[in-house]
Amino acid sequence: APVVSAQTSSSDQAISLKSGFNFVSFTVTPPAKPSELISKNSNIEDIYLYSAAAGSFLSVSEGTLTSLALGKGYIIKSKADTSVTINGPPASVIGDITLKKGFNLLGVSKLSSASAVNSFTKLLNASSSIGGLYKWSPAAGAFLQVIRDTQDRPIMIDGSDPSLSLVKRISLKRLKILKSVMMTILNYRNY
Q: Which of these ranges, 37-41, 94-98, 107-111, has the smallest mean pLDDT?
C-alpha cells in the first residue's frame, strides 16, 4: 500500500553551516525538538536561542532550549563546515511577535511583496519603537548596524543599509513577521 503523508505539502530547507556560530531562521516548520535537528548532523554541537524575557541565551546542551519554532532566530554552533536539510510544511503567516524591551533575536520567514518598508532605515523611520537593527554579515565577520542618533534619525554605522527584500522582510503592524531567511537583531525601545 502507498504511504500517505500527513502533511498537505512539504518543502526542503538546506542550511549551510560554517565551523563556529551560525545565525539560522527556518523557512519550513522545524522539528519540534532541537535534539532531532542535532541528530541529523553530528557536527551540530549546540543550538542557542536568545530569550529577551530572561536576558540570556537558552541552549540544548544546558537543557534550557527544548523546542524550535518559526519566527525565531537561532544560533547553531557547528564543529565543522557542514549542511543539514530540514523537510517540513512551508512557513505560513506566523502572526504577531511580542517584543521585549532590549534586544530581540528574530528569524523572519515569510514575505509580503506589498510593503514599502524594504530596508533597515525605512523600518526605523516607520517605527519609533525600534532603537536599532543589526544583521550578521558572515563576509565581514561582524554585524551591519543601523541605529538611531541623538536626534532619533537612523544612521548606518557601517555605511550599509541592509535590505528587507524578496527573501528578507519585516512588515509593520505591531511588528508582524511575514517571510525570510534573514537574521535580524532588533533593539526594541518600548516607551
A: 107-111
Work out the average pLDDT over 115-144. 81
DSSP state of 106: E
- 4-31 per-residue burial string, b: 16 or more CB within 10 A, e: under 16: eeeeeeeeebebebeeeebbbbbbbbbb
- Cα 49 from chain centroid? 10
Between 98 and 38, the higher pLDDT residue: 38
C-alpha span between 25 and 74 (Å, rounded): 6
Q: Are 144 and 185 in contact (CB under 8 A)?
A: no
Dist CA 178 CA 78 (whole Å): 28
The three cell numbers locating residue 172: 509593520
| Cα distances (angstroms) measured from residue 159 to each of 116, 140, 152, 187 | 21, 13, 17, 19
Grade residue 189 by pLDDT with cuts at 50, 70 and 90.
Answer: low
Question: Would you say 23 and 75 are in contact if contact means Cβ atoms under 8 Å apart?
Answer: yes
